[in-house]
Amino acid sequence: MTARYKAEDLQQFTASLFTGAGLAPERAAVLAEVFLEADLMGFSTHGLNRVPHNLRWLQGGESRVDGEPQVLADRGALFNWDAGFLPGPWVVRLALDQALARVAEHGVVTATLRRSQHIACLAAYLPRIVEAGYAVLMTCSTPAENTVSAFGGIDPLFSANPIAFAAPGEDCPLLFDISMSITAGGYVARAQREGKRLPEPCLKNRAGEITDDPAALGEGGSIMPIGGAAHGYKGAALSVFTEVLSMALGGYGRADAAARNDGEANSVFLQVIDPGAFTTPENFRRQLGALQSLCEQSAVPAGQPPARFPGRRAWELRQQQLAQGVDLYPGIMADLAPWAEQFAIPLPLALQAEGGL
Questions:
Q1: For the packed helices 88-106 and 25-40, what is the interaxial angle rounded to 10 degrees?
Q2: Residue-wise pLDDT tens digits, 237-296
Q3: Of the candidates 272, 268, 264, which has an alpha carbon nearest to the alpha carbon of residue 245?
Q4: Are 63 and 51 a contacting pair, CB within 8 Å?
């Protein structure tokens, strides 16, 4: 059985680690909140699992400890920033806050960011937007990363390029965060680290053979786009689409030689939408509720659970873990322990197995 921790204890602990690495407390708090939010919803490869990477980047100079993004364009309803390798979760939250401040006036606010240090899990940014009554669309790409092949090809060309969306509903929001590849690089790395095969053949090795061996990716192979060997033309088209939104609109990406040295820094597209600018918020939620009912009331094979509505499982898990404690993926706390020792920060205490809170 894995250990559970109070969400507030994990957040305070994580914020203290980032403060120890040199971030101002208010910025450290934002990073801690974003990483924890991913674990709350079950996105365990991009939650606290990513904290050690970010601490190394801060100490090594790959992430800037202070400074502000450079404004490249600003027309009210849209803006474009160069983040200059500021910590990704902090600069993305800053951009979303700016969009939230403007959306009541403009109805829709769109932004692009370049050279934002790795922004972690897109889903982690969505709850506070829908809780404010707005919809949000996000995607990101990594100009220096080549892991996903084009349809029919072998060469790794694209990054995983997740796309995320959330909108307020009746009893739960519509919410999803999906990569444009069959699996994300984080799951491939985790399987290789644990000496496991992937759950299904997701990769091509350098000879073009389809495989479930995670080692193939590091040996010149690639992850297949969504749709795989038969229908991957769909995922490959979406890979290009997301890179157009996040890189081409921002004016920086695959065409720039400098971008090849940007490590895990991301290019980001985000859009905050006010449903009340198009119809009444109540009518919007009513329509979304009807879509939810269509999914969850559809027929399923005997003995099977209801059809899934995107977001319900993550939203309910989030509520459960806020109330009962966060079930961290095995190994995460062990990876954080050396950093806690370095900064003389006590580890959070695990909850008791019975009657934890």
A1: 80
A2: 999 999 999 999 999 999 999 999 999 999 999 999 999 999 999 999 999 999 999 999
A3: 268
A4: no
**pLDDT number for residue 357:** 45
**C-alpha span between 123 and 282 (Å, rounded):** 24
8 Å CB contact between 356 and 35: no
Using DSSP, state whether 55 is helix, strand or coil.
helix
Are 326 and 10 in contact, with CB atoms under 8 Å apart? yes
**CA pair distance 112, 140, nearest whole angstrom:** 9
Distances (CA, A) of 210 to 22, 93, 198, 201, 214: 44, 39, 12, 6, 11
Q: How many alpha carbons fall within 13 Å on the CB side of residue 129? A: 34
Contact 200, 223 (CB under 8 A): no
Instruction: Kindly give the pairing relationship between strand 174-178 and strand 210-211.
Output: unpaired
Are the C-beta atoms of residues 252 and 116 closer than 8 Å to each other? Answer: no
- What's the full length of the chain, in residues? 357
What is the three-class DSSP state of 109? Answer: strand
**In the chain, what are the domains?**
1-66+325-357 (1.10.1530.10), 84-182+224-309 (3.30.1370.60)
Alpha carbons 142 and 247: distance in angstroms, whole number: 9
| Dist CA 54 CA 30 (whole Å) | 13
Residues 25, 12 contacting (CB under 8 angstroms): no
Q: pLDDT digits over 200-210, tens only?
A: 999 999 999 99
**DSSP designation for 227:** T
Q: What is the rounded distance in angstroms from the CA atom of residue 23 to the CA atom of residue 59? A: 10
Cα–Cα–Cα angle for 14, 17, 21, rounded to 5 degrees: 140
- For the record, the structure tokens of 267 come out as 């290019």
- The neighbour count for residue 201, using CB atoms within 10 Å, is 17
CA-to-CA distance for 203 and 190, rounded, in angstroms?
15
